[in-house]
Amino acid sequence: MHKIREIYETAWHKASEFQGLLLTLVLLNLVFIIIGQRMVMQGVPEIMEIRKEILKYLPSASYLQPLLGPLAPYLPLKILYTFFFNLIFGAFISTTLTGIIFFLPFLVTIGRALYIGILFYGIPASPILKILFIGTFILEFGGYIFSTLAGINIGLSIAFPSQWKKKERTIDALKESIVDMKWCYLFVVTLLFLGAVWEMGWIHYIGIEDFKKSAWIEF
Questions:
Q1: Angstrom distance (rounded) from CA 15 to CA 6
Q2: Which tens digit of pLDDT belongs to each residue from 88-104?
Q3: Cα 48 from chain centroid?
Q4: Are 51 and 120 spatial neighbours (Cβ–Cβ below 8 Å)?
Q5: Is 141 exposed, middle or buried, given 0-12, 13-18 or 19+ CB atoms closer than 10 A?
Q6: What would the pLDDT profile of 181-210 be if each residue is shown by its tens digit?
Q7: How far, in Å, CA of 61 to CA of 198, rounded?
Q8: How far is Cα 73 from Cα 89, in angstroms, rounded to an integer?
Q9: CA 188/CA 145 separation, integer angstroms
Q10: How many Cβ atoms sit within 10 Å of the Cβ of residue 113?
């Protein structure tokens, strides 16, 4: 237990070196979620049409079918599926790998925050569903913030090695940023796993059919 604590303390110390960037990412998420919600609140026609199409598409989305079908009775498998899907596609590919071009993770962050704001404006009044959505949002977006940090750090190390990492050679700056990524991903893995447990645990408790009815009809 002491060793685990030391590892997390080291990871947090490393992440705190990017305190300004972390704060920027948190604020970007909050600002664009609010912008998305405001556009829905004001009934912007184009946004309302996008929202309508998203809500129509989501129940039949291919990545959700395993959760609604063969994995539905098995909570551990649903947790693992959700965790690995979010880790590989939601975190690594979309926000870390894209960091090769340093500004792309910023664009992904803005787009994702707008999407969430547009989609989840006026979430169902059920206290259980509010607990589910808020808890999932905090844990998963926390994970995505750290994966985005890792991507931006890599991109800035490639684009501006001397200014960002104080290294003369790009390869040296890149190596250091990859070490940083390992520490960032300790938080990514932890938060996304807890998010999967939280999300799938509540949905399993509610029952998938009741969840689909209450979640999608109310939006």
A1: 14
A2: 999 999 999 999 998 99
A3: 23
A4: no
A5: buried
A6: 999 999 999 999 999 999 999 888 877 655
A7: 21
A8: 24
A9: 8
A10: 22
